[in-house]
Amino acid sequence: MAGFDKRVSSYEEALEGLADGMTILAGGFGLCGIPENLIAEIKRRGNRDLTVVSNNCGVDGFGLGLLLEDRQISRMIASYVGENKLFEQQLLNGELEVELTPQGNLAERVRAGGAGIPAFFTATGYGTQVAEGKEVRDFDGRNYVLEQAITGDIAIVKGWKADTYGNVVYRHTAKNFNPLMATAGKITVVEVEEIVEAGTLDPAEIHTPGIYVDRLICGTFEKRIEQRTIRA
Amino acid sequence: MALSREQMAKRVASELKDGFYVNLGIGIPTLVANYVPDDISVMLQSENGLLGMGAFPTEDEIDADMINAGKQTVTARTGASIVDSAESFAMIRGGHIDLTVLGAFEVDVQGNIASWMVPGKLVKGMGGAMDLVAGAENIIVTMTHASKTGESKLLSKCTLPLTGAGCIKRVLTDLAYLEIENGTFILKERAPGVSVEEIAEKTGGPLIVPDYVPEMAV
Description:
The structure holds 2 protein chains of 2 kinds.
Chain A: H1 11-14, E1 23-26, H2 36-45, E2 50-53, H3 65-69, E3 73-78, H4 85-93, E4 97-100, H5 103-115, E5 119-122, E6 136-139, E7 142-148, E8 152-158, E9 161-163, E10 168-169, H6 178-183, E11 185-192, E12 194-196, E13 215-218
Parallel strand pairs in A: 1-2, 1-8, 2-3, 3-4, 8-11, 9-12, 11-13
Antiparallel strand pairs in A: 5-7, 6-7, 9-10
Chain B: H1 5-13, E1 21-24, H2 28-31, E2 43-46, E3 50-53, E4 76-82, H3 85-93, E5 99-103, E6 106-108, E7 113-114, H4 129-135, E8 139-142, E9 154-155, E10 170-172, E11 176-181, E12 184-190, H5 196-201, E13 207-208
């Protein structure tokens, strides 16, 4: 009897049902808090024509950058695509469609998606390219742009630790987009560094309650650092 | 003499007040953190979710799970908190940040700012800049007054795609500190040794020059 036990036994099982053409929501900011093993599994599975929603698209050879190598991503919704040569090349070739979204709008669109709110008004982007074609409304003398929520077929999330019921805690700034993505996937898959027995985490400390989590797996992580800055 | 990047950062730092929550963009704005006066305390917000950014870590302190919005490894200062990206931008959008400092390519007399895209060049994305300029009340833009080829970045109308419309009121350049009001730039301070004439010549948009324009203290 599985009950609330969200654990699965393999990465293969974790992404069962992922099909070509689906929308994937991926947590992480830069390379911080990315679900690196789940991304590697998507590469192994070879699904194509994917729409990926993530703040960034990894780097060459790591993170979501891996999925660009075999042209698995056809559409990307992101705020900053950064220093990624393959991304640049596929964008310029027209192989990759990109919807650039202000970072706060991206976060709020996903949060709204997970919370059952179809759209919201925000001042961000008013009078700029990102507002083109979108409804604008005046509230108390200021103009706001209607932004639509984002949901996905599968959310891939990186947590620090979780209990067997899928209650997840994130570590430091590896939290970023992860708790948001976790709420907005039809299927939410979370990989963590440690799984503990239900009842051992303080209920008040939980960042993502198990209600949002469908599958849970424990992995080992490289945690690559993008900008290694130290003080003397 | 035009201000150095460090002098610009120092001038911006003089706007900081004790107890301020501040968001600093990439480039010159980042340097502002080095010039926080000793007698005040400010909390730096990094939009990836860190409120209370500290110094860079030592070799031993480096932690892949602890970065700032520039993806640099950092530490958290005393009293810091860490939130998810939606809450981080709720702080910004909700007007809770006391001062935002960011760079730009162009600013115009309507308070428009262009900072994220040059058509024909590769576009890397706006990141959090559009949210920051739309959400913050108190913004200082830092940039050079003119491009390397001498073209003014303070214009009647921005030529590049906008980051935000009607949201900029204060600009610090390497030559001057200016404010924007009623469709014009107002020259408030000039860099030490820089003449009003030079500033006027390098300002593309309408400029009001008061009778007395003090040199800034840097």
